[in-house]
Amino acid sequence: METASIIGILNFISRWILFLVVTYRFIKTREKGWALLMFAFFINALDIESYILDPLGIQIKEEVYEIAGMIPNFLISLLIMWGVIHLKSKRAEIRHVIGMGVYVSLVYLWLFFAATPFFDELPFAIRALPSSLAFGVSLIYLGIMLRRYIVRKKTLEELFPWGLILLGALNLMYPLIREMPRFVNAAFLLAGVFRVISAIGAVKFAFYPIMPPQKKREKILPKEIYLFTDSKEVEYMFPTLFLENNVIIITRKDPRTFQLGNDFIIYWITRVGEGNIEEDPRIFAISPTKIDILVDLVARGLKQGYNVVYVDAFEYLMLENGFKAAFKFLLSLKDHVISKNGTLILVVKLDALEEKERKLIEREFSKF
Length: 368
Description:
Elements: H1 3-29, H2 32-45, H3 50-53, H4 65-89, H5 94-114, H6 117-120, H7 124-150, H8 159-172, H9 174-177, H10 181-206, E1 225-228, H11 231-237, H12 241-244, E2 247-251, E3 264-269, E4 275-278, E5 282-286, H13 291-304, E6 308-311, H14 314-321, H15 323-339, E7 343-347, H16 355-364
Parallel strand pairs: 1-7, 2-3, 2-6, 3-5, 6-7
Antiparallel strand pairs: 4-5
């Protein structure tokens, strides 16, 4: 098999892996940000490239090939930036809308100019620069955002954003490399390698395994949701809570202060580091800003047989993310727990909240 064919297959397969992983993520979370990224990676998987279109028997007219090749890059960059906005802020603000409107207007003007005879007089590097710049910058920005807010550091998951960052940087150089035949194949090979690196991290990110508890526990608590103002109240009311249940703990405390057993998963909310700290019991450090992935991890744990979720880190999550985001996090946990007939125990110092915030908490979580 020729080198060009291997490079083409590598790029083709890795594009579809990224699309399928992001699609799986959207199906699991139902979040707008992942939906937008799903469409971006779908368009990228069907890019205007010969190694993608030739096997499908599709030919692009030579006279429109260059302009047709720009359009996917502009569309993908728009969807990626829009998706990042939703992943970070959960909704678009007026400045985001104006920014997107300006971007679309500039793209239209550039494509309009590309349809004129003056466009053909420009060097290829200048003709290709805007679309390559938009695509490359959007991939780099997505990679930075994923690494900072979504994936867990010091794990294989980090390959997901790093592959995108490297791919984005390579695309920034495409207008120059395309005019150097000696480097074209090497650039396509690197693009395939970077996509494979990203795909490996994406698969690890999407299918991170949650080991089931060793023993199946029946639900022993009489109601689904409990709100306490102090952890000592929990110890007094349920002295055997951590001995008789399979518990997922989300805490700011030193994890070793709990009565630890094998059927525990502890997510220690900290900025000191990330990743697996201990295997027995299972203790994971996770950044307070990664509440989306934390919800997903808890949901997976409930499906595996954990029956109690214990949270005493709300104040810290609120400090790092704001009350609105932290409160939505609690509501998501509540929905997942109820759907799996589990129990949620929430410890919040209500005196530390403003009156409006306290009323919202008490309305959704009745004080014990």
